[in-house]
Amino acid sequence: MAFVTEPRAVLIDELSLGLAPTIVGMLVDKVRQLHEMGTTIVVIEQSINVALLMSQQALFLEKGQVRFRGRAEGLLDRPEILRAVFVGDADQVASADGAGATPVAGASAARRRRGAHLECRELTKRFGGITAVGGVDLVVPPGRIIGLIGHNGAGKTTLFDMLSGFVDLDGGRVLLDGTDISDEPPHRRPILEVGRSFQEALLYPSLTVTDCVKVALERHLANRDPVAAALHLPASTDSERSAHARAEALIDLLGLDAYRDRPTGELSTGTRRIVELACLLAQDPAVILLDEPSAGVAQSESEALGPLLRRIQAETGCSLVVIEHDMGLLSGLCDELVALEQGRVIARGTPEDVLADPAVVASYLGTDAAFVARSGPRR
Question: How are the residues of the chain apportioned to helix, strand and coil, as percentages rounded to the nearest 5?
Fold first, then answer.
């Protein structure tokens, strides 16, 4: 579609986002062919491997500032730049504010123990001949925060789809407090106290922020009798007042006061993601799966997201599993990191250990010489 107008220059935003490596390889070949036909191509890309396969020149940005400008292969000679953004350095990880799951003062021990024990064993999912997830084991103890990392196409979102019931399993089991929930449909998972966000916040665009949160509270209403609601009986009005108070508390917790009466369709991408989080918390889940919560969020809001998630965990006692590309955020937030590559676990442990693991560094920074040599960068 982009080439219908026969453009002389094409801007490609995240070519490899969410795609399997095989498909990315096919797209890289097509981009090369289009370039050889005389089209100027500018690509935004997080995968250094993919960028090296296509690009002649590279511009490396961090927080709006140019950190590198030159030939693409020159990035491999500047690991300190790449590590700072994609993996983080050991000193930064060790000194991160609030590393681990430090509870907020005043949070009761009973609330902190509320989270459920989520476990998956040998989870496997294939799409045709491609194994998106291959034999993954994951344990999320009550009240813990686990981070999932890996480049685009590593299988992170597919794993979330399996945990939340949106994708059937080709192998393995999902256990919640020892009960097998592998065959439970997606609408049953929230009832079982497993909540999940998506890469794109899906809200009711015509409803206000307050009304969206109240809709999410629906299953927790003490009275849902339509006759009582139509006649404005005390059982119904008391229930609605309670829901409104809970919605207001969540809006205050997430700093959405200025948007409470705004339709969600008018909000920025980042603000909609915070509203989605409020709706997720309204369901009172014991386990929360967050898929790239900082995507589309402004830098200032992203920096406040880590402390906010730690506060949510401490005050609700829930467990969190977070997919995120912001390693600074994850290193200060998580008790444990699990790194995926091509659907398999390549490392797990503390943030310090995982982010220093040679396999993780190679996966993120493209320092696998065999990979680069096999395909060769653009000249």
Answer: 40, 20, 35
